[in-house]
Amino acid sequence: MKKTVLLFWGKGGNVERAARKVYSLFDPSRIDIFDVASFDTSTITNYDLIILGGSTIGAEVWMDVKDDNEWSRFFSAIEKSDLSGIYVAFFGLGDQVLYPDHFVDALGIFRQEMQQTSATIIGEWPIEGYKFTDSDGYDGKMFFGLALDEDRQADLTIERAKKWIDGLKKQAGF
Ligand SMILES: Cc1cc2nc3c(=O)[nH]c(=O)nc-3n(C[C@H](O)[C@H](O)[C@H](O)COP(=O)(O)O)c2cc1C
Description:
Elements: E1 4-8, H1 14-24, E2 31-35, E3 49-55, H2 59-62, H3 70-78, E4 87-93, H4 106-115, E5 120-121, E6 125-126, E7 142-143, E8 146-148, H5 157-172
Parallel strand pairs: 1-2, 1-3, 3-4, 4-5, 4-8
Antiparallel strand pairs: 6-7
Bound molecules: flavin mononucleotide (FMN).
C-alpha cells in the first residue's frame, strides 16, 4: 500500500489550514500528517511520497537562522537518508499582492534542498491564474510545486489542491 506523509510548518496559520485541506483530499489510511517539528525523521523512508508545505516569510527568517528553523533542522536530519525511489512534492504559501517580487520563494528553497537528496521531485504547477512579477519558486514557466495564496485566493485552494494531488498520484504511480 502506497503511503504519503505530509509535513508542514508553521503551525496555527495559513500553512496549517492549507495543509489540512490537502490532507482532507487523501484517504486517511494512506496519509500521515505532522508539523515538521513533531516528525520522527528516522521514519521518512517508510513513505512513498513526501509532501512538504511551508510559507515564504523572507529569506532572513526562513533559512538563514539555522539554529532556530524547523526546516533547516529537518533538512539536516534527512541529509543522510537514502530517499531513492521516494517521491517528494512541495506546496508553498505566499501573498502575491504584498510580495509580487518574491511570490512563494520558499518553493525554490524546498527544491534546492531536496535536489541534494536522492528523492524524485514531482508536482510542478502552472503559473496561470496568479499575478506576480518574480519568484525563486519558478523557472519562468512552472512553479516548482503548488503555489497557494490564502491571503488573496483562499477560495481557490481546495480546487487547486485537488488538481495538484490528482497529478501527483499519476506521477507517483498511486
Ligand atoms: C514578515 C512576512 C514576510 C513575508 N514574505 C513573503 C514573501 O517574500 N513572499 C510571499 O509570497 N509571501 C510572503 N509573506 C506572506 C506569507 O507567506 C503568507 O501570508 C502565508 O500565508 C503565511 O502563512 P502562515 O499564516 O502559516 O504564517 C510574508 C508574510 C510575512 C508576515
